[in-house]
Specification:
This protein has two domains: 69 residues; 146 residues, Pectate Lyase C-like. The N and C termini lie far apart (64 Å). The chain has three helices and eleven strands; from the N terminus they run βαβββββββββααβ. By secondary structure, it is an alpha/beta fold.
Length: 247
């Protein structure tokens, strides 16, 4: 079956998503969306590991929410919360993304070539083999990895930007791990987070992910991987235990 092409110009998000779902139900494996401008919920709840959706434009909020399987490639920026509670699949964003990227994500991968807004990776979680991954090529703003319960989050600080320069990183983190290319000022760590220089074994564990990220955007992974990394992890499984009254 040839690729299905949908013109989203002046199209409300509801009929747009209805057309996408109908195409997938009819067996389409490749869907191209042109002239996307702020339409929300693209790819939400879709299934099918062999389905690829290419978005030409800027999708609205909750891109790929609850999605389980497909790949979505965005040729531009994305709005807030791409990958929200995503179960499986891949989002490849060839630009920047807004706040709450990968919110409550529970599986799959989200790759953002450039930078993200506030609260990236908030409440990411994992269960057994389900381990969500968020990789940010540029910088992340405040409260990165807040309340993180599992998964892997990597911030690379490419394009000459500082990967972390705002507070609250890992605030309330009680699972998972955050890797930052370079050093992180202790001032920026949130409550319940601790940092250590990543050792060789830890760096080796993220190598396949960084290589895959670089491949998606036509980058050379060697200089990215040759750098020093900081690993941020939970200081405790119950970071706010002292904030409650127990009887």
């Amino acid at each position: 079956m040839t690729a299905v092409r949908i013109d989203a110009k002046n199209l409300h998000y509801t009929p747009l998503n209805q057309q996408i779902r109908a195409a997938v139900a009819d067996g389409a494996k490749e869907i191209i969306l042109d002239n996307v401008l702020g339409q929300r919920f693209i790819g939400d709840g879709l299934r099918g590991e062999d389905v690829t959706i290419t978005v030409n434009g800027v999708p609205g909020g909750d891109l790929g929410m609850f999605m389980s399987g497909p790949t979505i490639i965005v040729n531009g920026n994305a709005d807030h919360a791409p990958g929200n509670t995503m179960d499986n699949g891949r989002l490849v964003i060839k630009g920047s993304a807004g706040d709450a990227v990968a919110h409550s994500m529970r599986g799959g991968r989200v790759y953002v070539r450039d930078s993200i807004g506030y609260r990236g990776g908030i409440h990411m979680k994992q269960y057994k083999e389900k381990r969500p991954i968020l990789v940010v090529g540029g910088a992340a703003r405040a409260f990165l990895g807040e309340y993180m319960a599992g998964g892997l989050l990597i911030v690379l600080g490419l394009q000459g930007v500082s990967p972390i320069s705002e507070r609250g990183v890992g605030s309330g983190i009680h699972g998972g791990e955050i890797f930052v290319r370079g050093k992180v000022d202790e001032l920026y760590l949130g409550v319940g987070a601790k940092q250590t220089p990543a050792n060789e074994e830890q760096k080796a564990s993220i190598r396949p992910v960084v290589e895959d990220f670089a491949k998606m955007f036509g980058m050379d992974p060697t200089p990215i991987l040759d750098a020093e990394y900081t690993r941020i992890a939970p200081a405790s499984a119950r970071p706010f235990a002292s904030k409650y009254t127990w009887e």
